[in-house]
Amino acid sequence: SCCSFQVLLKSDAPTGDVLLDETLRHIKATETAETVQTWIELLTGETWNPFKLQYQLRNVRERLAKALVEKGILTTEKQNFLLFDMTTHPVSNASEKQRLLKRLQESVLERWVNDPQRMERRTLALLVLAHASDVLENVFASLADDKYDVAMNRTKDLLDMDPEVEAAKAKGTEMIWAVLAAFNK
């Protein structure tokens, strides 16, 4: 199945993004190829495997938040919870958030292509990640009821497709479908 596909490194050329480059180094350093599911667990810190600790990304959530703060998308605040303070990262750039929501809404409404092979890869990836993050309902929450229903139904149809079949159809989207399969598992 797709989520058991092994990740094979095609190029280790630097991307300019610290976390991506560190990920590439980890993938390159593995003795045997790991599956998409294993990499998701390692790179998100959702697993603790003593034999693979060297491949885990350290403090990945904090580092991602810091990068978004540096880009002006998030801000950093301290919130007090009775016995302890906690650092939070609320959105500081509402227009950027709205632009992203509008892009995803339009992709399943006005710009709906009814064929994942013709869908722009970044948009397909965003829809898959929004689904995996359980925020799709929030993405469509501002829509009128009829449009909300259309958006949710189209997205459900898209996400219910067979990842293995779709990955085989469209070169360059294999990883997107493999990630979907891993989260649907």
Automatic annotation (TrEMBL):
Domain of life: Eukaryota
Biological process annotations from GO: Golgi organization; Golgi to plasma membrane protein transport; Golgi vesicle budding; retrograde vesicle-mediated transport, Golgi to endoplasmic reticulum
Example GO molecular function: phosphatidylinositol-4-phosphate binding
Family, similarity comment: Belongs to the GOLPH3/VPS74 family.
Keyword terms, alphabetized: Golgi apparatus, Lipid-binding, Membrane
Protein's UniProt keywords contain Transmembrane: no
Cell location: Golgi apparatus, Golgi stack membrane; Golgi apparatus, trans-Golgi network membrane
Membrane topology: Peripheral membrane protein
One GO CC annotation: cytosol
Descriptive protein name: GLP3L protein
Source organism (scientific name): Alaudala cheleensis (Asian short-toed lark)
Pfam family, one: GPP34
